[in-house]
Write a structure and sequence with these properties.
alpha/beta, Rossmann fold, 2 domains, seven-stranded mixed β-sheet, 7 strands, elongated, disordered N terminus
C-alpha cells in the first residue's frame, strides 16, 4: 500500500528526471543561451502542471516512478562523469564492510572520477577499558579518556581522520584495540569528503555517544560528509547521521541514490535525500547543469 508521501516522492522523482533529461540535452548541445533558458522554463512549467494533475492517481504515480528510475539508470553515467574528478574521499564503516553496499560506494567513486583516500572499519560496541588502556600514555588523549569523555573522543577521532597529518589517537588505537578492524590507506593527506556507512545494529549507551561524537567530528571539517544506506536497510541509520550533522542518502544501492551522493560530495546542498520517509529534502540535491559541473 502506497501512502501520499510515497506518491509525492515518486512524482518529485519523475519531475527531477525530466529536468535532468533536458539539462543533459542542453549540456550536450552547448552553452545555455536566453532562448534555451526560456525553453527550459516552459518545459518545467509544463511538467509541473502534469504532476499537479496526476498527484491523486496512485497507479499512474507508481508507473511514473518506475519510469523515472529507469530513466536515471540510463543517464546516470553521463550525469556522474567527472563531477568528483581528483577528489580524495575517506570512507568509514561502522561495522564490517559487508553485503552489496561497499560495491555501491566503490562504484560511485569510480563513476565520478574520485579516489578512495582511506578506509576505516570500526567494530562496535566499543570496549571502554580497552580504549582507556591504549590511550593511557598518549599526550594527545588528555581529557578524552573515561566514560564521561567518550563522545569527545569520538569527535576528536573524526577530526583526525578528516584533517590527516599526524593522527596520534588513531595510531594509539589501531592494533592495540578491537575498535579498528580494517585499515586501508594512509593518514597524511586531508580528505576532500567522507562517506559513512553503518552496517552494525543501532547502538546504545557509551557506544551511541561515541558514534554521535565521531559523526560530529567527521562533519566538522569544511568538506562534504555524507552518511549512506541501502533501500532495504533493516534498521535505518539516517536519524543518527542527521543528529551527528551528516547529510544522508537512503538509497545508495540505486543509480538515483549514487547520483545524490555524488552531488553532495561535489558540494551540493546538505540535507537528507532518497526515496524513503527519511528523505526530508527530496530525491536529489539541487544540481548545476552537467556542462557547468565539468561532466
Amino acid at each position: 500500500m502506497f501512502d501520499l508521501r510515497y506518491h509525492v516522492a515518486s512524482l518529485a522523482a519523475v519531475f527531477l528526471a525530466l529536468i535532468i533529461g533536458i539539462l543533459v540535452g542542453v549540456g550536450i548541445s552547448g552553452p545555455v543561451d536566453n532562448q534555451k533558458t526560456k525553453f527550459l522554463e516552459e518545459q518545467v512549467a509544463k511538467y509541473q502542471r502534469r504532476l499537479d494533475q496526476s498527484a491523486s492517481r496512485s497507479t499512474e504515480a507508481v508507473r511514473e516512478q518506475q519510469a523515472a528510475r529507469a530513466f536515471i539508470k540510463e543517464v546516470y553515467p553521463v550525469l556522474a562523469r567527472n563531477r568528483l574528478r581528483g577528489k580524495q574521499i575517506a570512507v568509514v564503516f561502522v561495522g564490517s564492510p559487508k553485503g552489496s553496499i561497499p560495491k555501491a560506494v566503490d562504484g560511485l567513486l569510480t563513476d565520478s572520477g574520485a579516489q578512495q583516500l582511506r578506509l576505516r572499519a570500526l567494530k562496535v560496541p566499543v570496549d571502554l577499558s580497552q580504549l582507556d588502556a591504549a590511550l593511557k600514555q598518549q599526550p594527545a588523549a588528555a581529557g578524552l579518556r573515561g566514560r564521561k569523555n567518550i563522545e569527545e573522543l569520538g569527535r576528536s577521532l573524526g577530526e583526525e581522520l578528516m584533517l590527516g597529518g599526524d593522527t596520534p589517537l588513531w595510531n594509539s588505537l589501531t592494533g592495540a584495540t578491537e575498535l579498528v578492524q580494517e585499515v586501508d590507506g594512509g593518514t597524511k593527506k586531508p580528505a576532500d569528503g567522507v562517506i559513512v556507512v553503518r552496517t552494525a545494529t543501532p547502538q546504545r549507551g557509551a557506544t551511541s555517544r561515541f558514534l554521535r561524537g565521531l559523526y560530529s567530528g567527521l562533519s566538522s571539517a569544511a568538506v562534504p560528509a555524507v552518511g549512506v544506506e541501502q533501500t532495504d536497510a533493516p534498521e535505518s541509520a539516517i536519524e543518527a547521521f542527521a543528529q551527528g550533522g551528516l547529510s544522508s542518502v537512503d538509497d545508495v544501492d540505486s543509480p538515483m541514490g549514487r547520483f545524490a551522493t555524488v552531488l553532495l560530495l561535489a558540494g551540493g546542498q546538505s540535507g537528507q535525500y532518497g526515496i524513503k520517509n527519511s528523505a526530508d529534502d527530496g530525491a536529489l540535491p539541487p544540481m548545476a547543469s552537467p556542462a557547468a559541473a565539468g561532466g
